[in-house]
Amino acid sequence: MADNEKLIKKSDVILLVVVLTMALFAVVYIMSAKEKGTKLRISVDGEVMEEFYLSEDREHQITTDKGGNLVVIEDGEVDVIEADCPDKVCVNHVPVDEVGETIICLPHKLVLEIVE
């Protein structure tokens, strides 16, 4: 078999190394650019209802005509620990604490967003 007929050429390996290196730098940049939030904004059906500072540990019951959710702020993180919606996606979501992260309960039209 001639050198130019190899399945993997030297240029293919170089291209792969360059692409993987760029991907690694992108992941590192994205991970380092995240910023811890200081405030939770609670919206129901697109309307801001309340805001709480993440520095204050608390439980907060949100009750609307669509249903209820129990939200916990603890150690700077926000988590939904109870909900009476059928799918429980909001309860199964990991706690959030970085600016721009959200927990959404679609059946209740509830959005919990970390801001500032």
Entry keywords:
single chain; 116 residues; alpha+beta; mini-chromosome maintenance (MCM) complex, domain 2; 2 domains; four-stranded antiparallel beta sheet; three-stranded antiparallel beta sheet; 2 helices; 24% helix; elongated
Oligomeric organization of the protein chains:
single chain
Helix tally equals 2
Reported by name, the CATH topology of the largest domain is mini-chromosome maintenance (MCM) complex, domain 2
Order of helices and strands: HEEEEEHEE
The CATH homologous superfamily of the largest domain is called N-utilization substance G protein NusG, insert domain
CATH architecture of the largest domain: Sandwich
In summary, what is this structure?
By secondary structure, this protein is an alpha+beta fold.
What would you note in describing this structure?
The chain has 116 residues and is of the alpha+beta class. It has two domains: 3-33; 39-115, N-utilization substance G protein NusG, insert domain (mini-chromosome maintenance (MCM) complex, domain 2), CATH 2.60.320.10. Helix content is 24%, strand content 39%. It has helices at residues 10-33, 89-92, and strands at 39-44, 47-53, 58-64, 67-74, 77-83, 102-105, 110-115. A hairpin with a 4-residue loop joins strand 6 and strand 7. It is elongated, with a radius of gyration of 22 Å. The model has no long low-confidence stretch (mean pLDDT 92).
